[in-house]
Amino acid sequence: MQIPDVPPQLLAALVEAAAGQRLALVGGVVRDLLLHRHHQDPWRGLPDLDLVVEGRAADLVERLQAALAHQIGRPVAIREQHHGRYGTAELELALPPECGGTWLIDLASARQEVYPRPGANPVVSPGSLDHDLARRDVTVNAMALVLNPPGAGVGAAPELLDPFGGQADLAQRQLRFLHPHSLRDDPTRLLRAARYAARLGFDLAPEALEQVRATLLAWPWDWHLGDDPAQAPPALATRLRMELELLLDREPWPVALELLQRWGGLALFDPGLQRDHTWGRRLRWGARLGAPALPVLLAAVSDPVALVRRLQLPHGQQALIARARQL
Q1: Could you say which DSSP state residue 207 is in?
Q2: Strands 48-53 and 102-109: what pairing?
Q3: Are strands 144-146 and 102-109 parallel, antiparallel or unpaired?
Q4: Which residues, including other chains, have CB under 8 Å from residue 276's CB and lie 6 or more apart?
Q5: How far apart (Å, rounded) are the C-alpha atoms in residues 209 and 327?
Q6: Residue 83 phi/psi, 5° resolution?
Q7: 3-class DSSP state for residue 143?
Q8: How many other CB atoms sit within 10 Å of the CB of residue 3?
Q9: Cα radius of gyration rounded to whole Å, the chain
Q10: Within a domain: residue 222?
Q11: How confident is the model at residue 69 (pLDDT cuts 50, 70, 90)?
């Protein structure tokens, strides 16, 4: 499988830098390539690549910069940031115009993860590319293009790795979770599914929708509405807020929120919000008044003070929620 729009010089340097360790494009860039969509960073509008290596990402960064500098004749990195705790690194490369110009490169060491309890932060350890794909949220994001397939020789075409049937789900325009306990482990995956569905024009597969309904009915987390908000697991607290902020900031949010409500997912925040059908009007009025979307959306909840504490919103958001309840 070929990779259009990616400079051959960059691909060659990546393969050289991998030094025999399996290296793959992952995530949205693979999905968008199969959908024949242009992929770029949603924040800066620049082309970007997400890569996973079966080795240390920091070592790959050093070798990649050396390989590109040798090819081009000068250093090319204009920004470099490492996150040692997560085994990830970010590079911003200034390549010559004939080599594609500015590129954003996200590199990560292959990882595996285990959830000690539902909704908790996962315990992460080094793993293989196959382990790393098994961490993903939906099948269409759990594919990889291996840039240096083992035994394929120099210059071989990248090889598609699709262990969960993501390509078939792309054809069906549907989102499926990777395993039956996906939402039990991490309920924020439902918000990401709403973001992808709104962006791509997809919907949940029938078995995924059944998992949503069964999980919300069972409520498998050791925290319930009315409990101390400070004791909520991260996936029902700060991480849930962060995913909602991304949804409201970067996606066609009216579609995403409609899907989330239709699936029952707004109940993760509050039953009152799940029953609320005036949020669209409230958000439109809030936008006219210049109010942030998040507190305006949450104005319909049954207990706004408790939700503010659970999501750990800034103190000023509580007053905004009180004002938004009057819209």
Answers
A1: H
A2: parallel
A3: unpaired
A4: 266, 300
A5: 32
A6: -125, 85
A7: coil
A8: 18
A9: 21
A10: yes
A11: confident
Please, which pLDDT band fits residue 325 given cuts at 50, 70 and 90? low
Q: Let me know how long the chain is.
A: 327
Reported as a pLDDT band with limits 50, 70 and 90, residue 161 is very high
Give the mean pLDDT of 261-280: 95
Which amino acid is located at 311 in the chain? L
CA distance 323 to 216: 30
Task: Report the domain count for the chain.
Answer: 2
Shared domain for 59 and 184, answered yes or no, is: no
Q: Which tokens belong to 219? A: 């409520």
Supply the pLDDT for residue 324: 62
Rounded mean pLDDT of the chain? 89
Q: Which tokens is 120 given?
A: 């908790």
Phi, psi of 262 (to 5 degrees): -65, -35
How far is Cα 69 from Cα 95, in angstroms, rounded to an integer? 10
- Same domain for 218 and 91, yes or no, is no
60 pLDDT more than 60: yes
